[in-house]
Amino acid sequence: MAREVADRVMSAPPTLGPGRLVCVDGPAGSGKTTLAAAIAEFVPGTQVVHTDELLEGWRGLPGLAGSVAALLAPLAAGEAGHWRCWDWHADGWAGTHAVRPGGLLVLDGVGSWSPAVADLVGLLVWVEAEPSLRLARGIARDGEALQPHMAQWRLDEDDLFARLRTREHADLVVPTDD
């Protein structure tokens, strides 16, 4: 699947200034980060940005689209983009990172796509899995203690996806149940 995504986006014209953009979106625990890393293996120099690092904590999902748009606007103009990184352990902003223009950028995470950036996206990939599997993956990754945060997060992401109809806009749907 990763090769197909890489081939599709790299064979299409640039959509992000001189570069190309893939958004790997879908609910938490569905396998987005695994797919994003695999895509990067097929295109040397790929930059991957995990949108959970752009969120202002557990309740930051409503502001994510603005942060993504601010990152992508200069890239669309052929200039470096910048994003602030959230430190989940310190519960605060922890610095700024640059993304160089050109090449392939993979945005990985819940809410990586929105109508605000749709015209810059070369390919939107929706990754999904059954809710119980996603929860088990999340607990294995983040620990049992975060389960109350995960419960609220699932409500927030469900609301976001319903409002934006993200899955309906996807160019490719990838189930990861097996």
Task: Summarize the SSE layout with pairings.
Elements: H1 2-11, E1 19-25, H2 32-42, E2 47-50, H3 64-76, E3 81-87, E4 92-99, E5 103-108, E6 123-128, H4 131-142, H5 147-164, H6 166-169, E7 172-175
Parallel strand pairs: 1-5, 1-6, 2-5, 6-7
Antiparallel strand pairs: 3-4
Helix pairs in contact: 1-2
On the 0-100 scale, what is the average pLDDT?
93
Q: Estimate the strand proportion.
A: 15-25%
Major sheet: arrangement of strands: 2-5-1-6-7
- The string of secondary-structure elements, in order, is HEHEHEEEEHHHE
Distance between the termini: 14 Å
Assign the structural class, choosing from mainly alpha, mainly beta, alpha/beta, alpha+beta, or little secondary structure: alpha/beta
Q: What overall geometry do the principal axes of the alpha carbons give?
A: globular
Radius of gyration: 15 Å
What is the helix fraction of residues, given as a range? 25-40%
Largest sheet: 5 strands, parallel
Count of beta strands: 7
- Assembly state: single chain
Low-confidence blocks of residues: none
Number of helices: 6
